[in-house]
Amino acid sequence: MKTTLRDSILVGAALITILASGFGLGRLSPRESAPAPTVPVDNLSEEVLASLRSSLNLTSEQEIEIAPELENLTTLVLDSRQQALIQYYESLLNFHGEIATKLNLRQQKILEANRKLLQQEFSNRFNPQS
Predict the structure, then answer these.
(1) Quick one: which of 5, 7, 41, 88 is 20 to 30 A from 114 by CA?
(2) In whole angstroms, what is the distance from residue 73 CA to residue 44 CA?
């Protein structure tokens, strides 16, 4: 079997097409993004200010000017976090109530004990005794 110039060109074109397709699909596939940075809530404003300071080269006067907006952001984030945690606990407690009838007696007792612990944690976290 003799290889002709035409056959060689077709094989080469096929290889180029395969490589180009692989490259194109690789570029289209979603890449894993880096996780969002997490900042401890207790020093949120300091972390945000430090980030702005380094990326924007803020002057002292600018830092003073943006301080009220930064305080508003911190308050908003803390309030949102508190509301999300309350909703989380309430959803878990509701879930326990929904699944209880689908469990056997032993499982129901365990679930009830877990539910009481969850209610206690909820109470301690959101209704602290002064």
Answers:
(1) 41
(2) 9
